[in-house]
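Q: What would this complex look like in 3D?
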Amino acid sequence: MQKQNDRLIRKILISYAITFIVINFADSLTMIVDGMVVSRGLGSTALAAIGLADPSFKFVSLFTGVLAAGLQSLCAQAMGSGDKERVNGIFSAGMVVTLSVTVVLVFLGFLFTGKLCLLFGAEDDPDLYHNLFQYLRGWFTGIPGYMLFFVLSPLVTLDGNKKNVAIATIVQSIVNVVGDILAVFVLDAGVYGVGFATGLSFNVSAVILMLNFVRKRSVFKPFSQRPLMKLLPKTMNIGLPMITQQVCKILAPLLINRTIIAIGGSLAMSAMSVKAGVMGFCVIIGHGIAESVGLMTQILYSEKDETSLKQTVKIALRLHLILNTVMMVLLFALAGGVSSLYFTHGTLEWIYARRAVRCLALFLLMNGCNTILIKYLHGARKMMPVHIMTLLQRMASLTVSTMVLGNLFGINGLFAAIPVSEALVLIGYVVFILVRNHKQDFWSAILMIPDGFGYNSENSFSVSISTVEEAVAVSEQIESFCIAHQVDKRQSFFSARCMEELSTNIILNGFTADDKKHHCDIRVMIDPDGVVLRLRDDCPYFNIRERYDSLAEDDIDAGVWIRMVFALAKDIRYINIFNTNTLVIRM
Amino acid sequence: MNVTTSVNENTMTVVVDGEINTITTPSLAEKVANLDGIQMLIFDVSRVPYISSAGLRLFLACQRRMMASGGDMVIRHCNDLMWEIFESVGYDRIMKIEKMD
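A: Here is my prediction, written as structure tokens for the whole assembly.
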């Protein structure tokens, strides 16, 4: 029996981090292969046109980013309290907005394609204009799929079907690459074909994602509830940091690249391009873990589970530090080899590229920590700190570091700015927070957990169990815990016994349902309204509410323990989160 | 949990001292495995603080065996919390249960 319930947290964190890492890896690989096919098959003008089209993706991403972040957060909160109706009300509202925005964007995109080509910089080159026009027309057919893919992916992940998201992403990558190859080398469809392949890949992946909702176990049932349109402003507010992020992605290069070229010329810029290319792969682990933290924080924060929140972040940071220390050492050692992929060994370009890659290696640990913190803060809906940290990390700190260090140390200062900027953000945050919240313990301060927040070690009891003997022993502890917190004898007794019944049956039936190792986390919380029990296990799907509803009233043999628990508890809610069976019982 | 059984003519009295839960139910089941010749089965639960669903199923099984052989069963000295458990699964309607005085 383990006092902390971190076994399940660790398992969920790692499994979701792996999914996000796979998704990010597929994305990065697709971009590289895509570029290679186009440059080889259609030439540099076509590749330049695709590069010019990038703002159109970023513009559409503004909408998907805001909607996805906002919807995921609100749905996670509703799921945390077991309110399926609210989940679907929010989901329906999100779908109404997504589809409406999609129609508008497609209409405007097709209507103003020519004007967009001029806006994106193709006005002086008819060949470039033509290529860009064709590409945009091709990719705009995929706007519906693009919108749905990015809005639905986080929701399907929340629904516990991360396998579906990984499959959709991988299929999208395959369709994109195969489509490009067919368009360029077989069908002679040119740049339009490449754009169309991109659009088609998103349409196909969106259909795969939507298959999730026909699953019986899916919490999300599109339009099963009236859309809760009144929650849209809140959705937008939660999603705002995504706009900050996108704006920084657009503005930061404009500010920084000028400094790099002014101080280091094209040599420094080419070294930075190598760094940018390598960075996409190197940050995958840290960012995958951070995405996982963000997802879990949304649920745990809504459950006011302070202990689990702290455990989640600690485990995530530990995992990130271990894995990325290895990555850092490897990258540092192999920086020369990496640079050789781009430039001839020993040349000045190679030397600078190697320095840039080594500085990137040093940047990884702090970047991971910052990203984990930002994702946590976003999951916990600390919007102002998220905006500030995002602005600092993605623009301000890097811009200032580049300018100052570049002017002081020349081209080497430009490279040094890569890790220094991240260190400044991390140290700045930690120092500021600890000074501001100096009366709190370290983790409560860093995670901005307010005093009196939800359930903590004073008014809650957490344990992981794996045997029937432990279930019985914990039952006695629960009764004592409740009595010690002035819960009346009857409620204390039945809280303990309900927990014993549920956990015993999870172990006897759920643990043996397959050959895998399972965990059962128990949490008992005391609030002004009484006792709240939460059980979470990673056994095969078992919805106790569905089972209870299916019991015939006169069949006294079936489901004795279920009838007992439902009769003794005030309210029982079941939800499947992160592929775990989660029960929230109010006694 | 301790279980003592006594047989007087065709009446078996089973006195249970302790919780009847998933762990202890099998040992209680052993004690009542042989009901040959028993026409009345009495469970004295005055010293049982709690009975789990495993214990409830055992009582139901004993009830059925007694009825099949033309006998009867009664559960005596049931405290309020135990009574509530029997009531929650509807066993108060199909078993003879006497509350504690």
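A: To summarize the key features: Residues 2-29+38-99 of chain B form a domain with the Transcription Regulator spoIIAA fold (CATH 3.30.750.24). Chain B has a mean pLDDT of 91.
Q: Very helpful, thank you.
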